[in-house]
Amino acid sequence: MKIAFIAHDRKKEEMVNFVIAYERVFEGNKLYSTGTTGLRIMENTDLKIHRFMSGPLGGDQQIGALVAQNEMDLIIFLRDPLMAQPHEPDINALLRLCDVQGIPLATNIATAEILVKALDRGDFAWRDLVHKYKPISEEL
């Protein structure tokens, strides 16, 4: 599974604590993150994460590019709903792409926990079928 972590500044500590709590579940998956979030997770866990740029510098768009190609399986994006974000258009584009591609997306810790528990149970096997049977138009 390909899993991405994104967290706004005031949510980074919450993300780190969440990943620490579920580190065993995340092991063995391909992990991605925006810059600082990924660095903080790696400093506090034994996980290896491919880090993109910081969100405001294009990291959200880099993850969005993988989503657009249906190359991402799960995104945990802890957003700060009480703080305006200068890159809000990038955030909205990423959320829209997740809806278009049917990518599970958690934007708060409660939903993230539900999705990670489903991942631990093996409930994401349907994503393997998505990768195996891509639409004919993508094979051309």
UniProtKB/TrEMBL annotation:
PROSITE patterns, alphabetized: METHYLGLYOXAL_SYNTH (PS01335), MGS (PS51855)
Reaction catalysis annotation: dihydroxyacetone phosphate = methylglyoxal + phosphate
Binding site for substrate: H8, K12, T34, G35, T36, T37, S54, G55, H87
GO BP: any one term: methylglyoxal biosynthetic process
Enzyme class: lyase
Record flagged with keyword Iron-sulfur: no
One GO cellular component, as annotated: cytosol
EC numbers on record: 4.2.3.3
Gene Ontology molecular function: methylglyoxal synthase activity
CDD domains documented for this protein: MGS
Pfam families cross-referenced by the UniProt entry: MGS
Keyword Acetylation belongs to the record: no
InterPro entries tied to this protein: Methylgl_synth (IPR004363), Methylglyoxal_synth_AS (IPR018148), MGS-like_dom (IPR011607), MGS-like_dom_sf (IPR036914)
Active site (record annotation): D60 (proton donor/acceptor)
UniProt entry keywords in alphabetical sequence: Lyase
Domain MGS-like: residue ranges: 1-140
Function: Catalyzes the formation of methylglyoxal from dihydroxyacetone phosphate.
HAMAP family, sorted: Methylglyoxal_synth
Family, per entry: Belongs to the methylglyoxal synthase family.
PANTHER family: METHYLGLYOXAL SYNTHASE (PTHR30492)
Entry protein name: Methylglyoxal synthase
Originating species: Paenibacillus antarcticus
